[in-house]
TrEMBL record:
Lineage top rank: taxon: Bacteria
Chain intervals with Acidic residues compositional bias: 18-29
Keywords attached to this entry: Membrane, Transmembrane, Transmembrane helix
Protein name: Putative Holin-X, holin superfamily III
Length: 143
């Protein structure tokens, strides 16, 4: 138990984080160690190094994101094109499927009116969303 107490009370040997260029002199010399100016200069140098590393990291992140955005745009346009073609095929298929039942002109009219009704529904939903955004940014909030 006495040995544990002696080990726990080791003498203080000085600061842990000394500047890189600090080299202690002989043990017996009365050297005060690094000055406050040396510490501040080391801190500024470390801050500059950190800022340069952070800038390089953010530049590499931005480059990576820009490279990936090109792929996202390409795949998004491809997806939009394929889905657009699928909707055209579905519309033509509906007209062809309804033609034997009601005739080609009435089948075309039914599909056209259904698409117009669907478009008006989406337009009303869009208008509601735009009005909500406009109300959020209006000065009174009640308009």
């Amino acid at each position: 138990m006495l040995e544990e107490e002696e080990r726990g009370n080791a003498p203080y040997e000085g600061p842990v984080d000394l500047p890189d260029e600090y080299e202690p002199e002989e043990e017996g010399a009365d050297s005060p160690g690094p000055s406050l100016v040396d510490d501040v200069l080391a801190l500024l140098d470390d801050g500059k190094t950190y800022a340069e590393a952070e800038m390089a990291y953010q530049k590499s992140r931005a480059g990576f994101a820009a490279n990936r955005i090109k792929g996202v745009v390409a795949y998004g346009l491809g997806t939009f094109g394929v889905l657009h073609l699928a909707l055209i095929a579905m519309t033509v298929g509906l007209v062809i499927a309804l033609a034997p039942l009601v005739g080609p002109w009435i089948a075309t009219a039914i599909v056209t009116l259904a698409l117009i009704a669907l478009g008006i529904l989406f337009l009303n939903l869009l208008k509601k969303r735009i009005d909500e955004i406009r109300d959020a940014f209006s000065e009174d909030g009640n308009e």
